[in-house]
Automatic annotation (TrEMBL):
<keyword id="KW-0732">Signal</keyword>
<protein>
    <recommendedName>
        <fullName>DUF3187 family protein</fullName>
    </recommendedName>
</protein>
<feature type="signal peptide">
    <location>
        <begin position="1"/>
        <end position="30"/>
    </location>
</feature>
Length: 402
């Protein structure tokens, strides 16, 4: 989460700045527009401006453009930092860590307080009005306007493990298995995992996270003896959770620490462990304009429940994302585990190499992230374990309830 500038120091100028909405050509042709040109004129128009943009569905964004060339967009619980400048004699450009977009301005010949802005990328127009004594509001913002974050900016922020943006993450996993057990190579599973993330911001760089992980076993083959497998269909698995405190440090470094646990909620004995698990977690990450890399480590012991066996598992996840622009990313979030209670060393470690691609889109004003990943297990229990895994992900961004 990026530092917020002191809003008390801002001079709020009554101007509606942006909403990248295509306007019908007949309307544009019926009106006379005068180009707004000159560095000083454009500088005066944008300097100190504040615009509140309606993103649709009751959500809004607020853009601040300071006279010193700094800018920020507040949207979806996060602050996106930008800079801006006048380019040549007829364009205003903003730059973020991910992109630079430029716009030209025109004034309505019949109404000196009415303007339109042309996005030089696609030629689409936005209309705004100057109102005395108040900040104007507009209807729907487009991708990367002067008053709303772009898909590229949102995609980069969603990869930050300490983001203040709320998401409802839905993962569909297909896993193919292998092993020395007869018939192991023909087994597979489909699982659905719902993991909402609704951070609670404590300050500009610190968030509290409580993230439940609710699994639904659609279909899974489970060893039941030598050469025999039982099938589990449409059952609730054991619900996991973590409670953690995240902190962004100077230089773009992120640290996170807390507790992780598992509840015995499975509706079928074959879909869970029938134990209460608890343990610590810690994560370290580095965020840069090109993306993010990091690792999460957890450990869980059984603290109650079934006592015929013990659980002692070290787990984790390494994650990375490389920003490609336009909301596209190459990324991966593979999970690994080491079972200290396995009967021998050949059955302890599960470790995949993973790669994927994702794209963040603005649909109806709301950001959605879609992705697919492939994980190939370079280490897996010899008796029975995963061979490869496909993960399909859908994550809509949601407003925080607090």
């Amino acid at each position: 989460m990026k530092p917020r500038e002191n809003r008390d120091q801002k001079r709020v100028v009554p101007i509606l700045m942006s909403l990248l909405v295509a306007v019908a050509a007949p309307r544009a042709n019926a009106e006379q527009w005068i180009p707004v040109e000159g560095r000083e004129t454009l500088q005066a128009l944008v300097s100190g401006a504040t615009a509140r943009i309606d993103l649709g569905q009751g959500h809004s964004a607020v853009g601040h453009y300071a006279a010193d060339g700094s800018a920020s967009i507040e949207a979806w619980g996060e602050v996106f930092q930008r800079s801006w400048r006048v380019e040549g004699e007829n364009q205003v450009c903003y730059s973020s860590a991910q992109e630079t977009n430029c716009f030209s301005f025109e004034r309505d010949a019949a109404n000196a307080n009415r303007y339109r802005v042309r996005d030089t990328r696609d030629g689409e127009y936005t209309y705004f009005q100057l109102f005395a004594g108040q900040v104007a509001e507009a209807s729907v913002a487009g991708d990367g306007s002067l008053g709303s974050p772009s898909a590229a900016e949102i995609a980069a922020e969603l990869s930050n493990p300490n983001t203040a943006m709320g998401t409802l993450n839905l993962n569909l996993d297909y896993t193919a298995y292998q092993g020395d057990l007869p018939g192991a190579g023909g087994q597979e599973s489909w699982r659905l995992l719902f993991q909402p993330s609704l951070p609670y911001p404590l300050d500009d760089t610190t968030n509290v996270f409580f993230r439940p992980a609710i699994p639904v076993v659609i279909e899974q083959d489970v060893p039941a003896g030598i050469g025999e497998f039982d099938s589990v269909d449409w059952q609730l698995g054991d619900i996991g959770f973590d409670l953690a405190l995240g902190k962004t440090l100077p230089g773009g470094y992120v640290v996170l620490g807390g507790v992780v646990g598992t509840l015995p909620t499975a509706t079928d004995d074959l879909a869970g462990r029938d134990q209460w698990l608890l343990g610590p977690e810690v994560a370290l990450a580095m965020t840069r304009p090109w993306g993010v890399v990091g690792v999460l480590l957890t450990h869980q012991w059984d603290i109650a429940g079934e006592d015929d066996y013990d659980t002692n598992v070290t787990g984790g996840q390494y994650f990375y994302a490389f920003n490609l622009g336009g909301g596209w990313q190459i990324n991966g979030t593979p999970t690994f585990s080491y079972n200290h209670e396995a009967r021998n060393g050949d059955n302890k470690l599960s470790f995949p190499l993973g790669i994927g691609v994702s794209r963040t889109l603005l649909l109806g004003g709301r950001p959605w992230k879609f992705g697919v990943q492939y994980w190939h297990y370079v280490a897996s229990p010899d008796d029975f374990g995963p061979d490869y895994q496909l993960r399909f992900n859908v994550s809509p961004v949601v407003a925080l309830p607090w």
